[in-house]
Amino acid sequence: MNITAETVPAALKGGPRYLDGKVCVIVGVASLRGIGYATAELFARHGAKLVVVDLMMDDTIAADVSQAIATRNGEAPELLGLRCDIGRAADCQGVIDQAVARFGRIDCLVNTAAIVKSDGLLAISGDDLDLILNVNLKGAFNLCQNALRVFEEQGSGTIVNIASVAAQRGGGLVGGAHYAASKGGVISLTRSIAREFGPKGIRANAICPSMTETGMLDGNVTEAQFAQIVDAIPLKRAGRPEDIANACLYLASDLSAYVTGTTLDVNGGSHIH
Predict the structure, then answer these.
(1) Is 111 helix (H, G, I), strand (E, B) or coil?
(2) Cα 220 from Cα 217, distance rounded (Å)
(3) I want to staple 136 with a disulfide (CB 3.0 to 4.6 A). Which of 56, 103, 130, 182 is the partner?
């Protein structure tokens, strides 16, 4: 690997490292095109120890993620890769248990894993509804519940849940009604956690991205639809994974020490409300 001064970001040249030594569990990291990977890369740049989780995670994917981060950041991350079916509570408990066994604690949970379908409401089958809710809402619940047991014992911890602008405006850009409903549930779940666990030193916040250039667009948006959506965005571009990762860094770190229960819009101005 050839590391040059231009390769190494400013944060590794003596700049602030906002997550130095923090143990961060990031869920949904198998794709190098995704929000989860962009978040893992940024968090590692700021000194975090990483637990990267995905249904597709195996030793090969974990090694690819680690190598990609090392190439981009100029140093190898301290990283544990774990497979998890987030719809299964036992799997989620296993992930949290293994993270604590490896690193001794957890400081942050970031939930980026989700699936999307764009069917009209009358075309949504019961099986599709169950699938979307099981992954997007029940999965987030399972992970939060198990992480909160650790956070409560520690007296500290942060949760960042990725919701969607679809939850705020009722779908219509990419996801269908079942997707929008699942992400609306994520917002309500996050607010409930913030209210209940704030007195215990635990913060929880949600991010609502608009259309972001990840693999989730594949097969769900045509080129013509993409261009039409971008044309209606005040900033005249779709979101990028790093845009959402930057918001995750803010909410995961002490930069947002007095922020909990919020829903942070990262949408280029596409939904101003």
Answers:
(1) strand
(2) 5
(3) 182
164-223 pLDDT, tens digit each:
999 999 986 678 999 999 999 999 999 999 999 999 999 999 999 998 888 766 666 778
C-alpha pair distances (Å), 54 with each of 16, 149, 176: 29, 21, 23
50 within 8 A of 44, measured Cβ to Cβ: yes
Nearest Cα residue to 179 out of 264, 222, 238, 120: 120
Looking up tokens 């992480």 gives 147
Model's pTM, two decimal places? Answer: 0.93
18 counts as catalytic:
no
Going from N- to C-terminal start, the domains of the chain cover 16-266
Residues 6+ apart with CB under 8 A from 191: 204, 206, 261
Cα–Cα nearest to 83, from 69, 98, 68? 98
Q: 159, 197 in Cβ contact below 8 A?
A: no
Report residue 112 as tokens.
Answer: 């980026």
How far apart CA 262 and CA 273 sit, in angstroms, is: 14
88 or 119, greater pLDDT: 88
- Compute the distance between CA of residue 223 and CA of residue 40 in angstroms, rounded to an integer: 29
Strands (E), the chain: 23-27, 49-54, 79-83, 108-111, 157-162, 202-209, 263-266
Give me the CATH topology for the region 16-266: Rossmann fold (3.40.50)
Annotated catalytic residue: which of 18, 37, 179, 250? 179
CA angle 157, 154, 257 (to 5 degrees): 30
Cα 226 from chain centre: 23
Q: What is the helix (H) or strand (E) element at residue 128, kind and residue range? A: helix 126-132
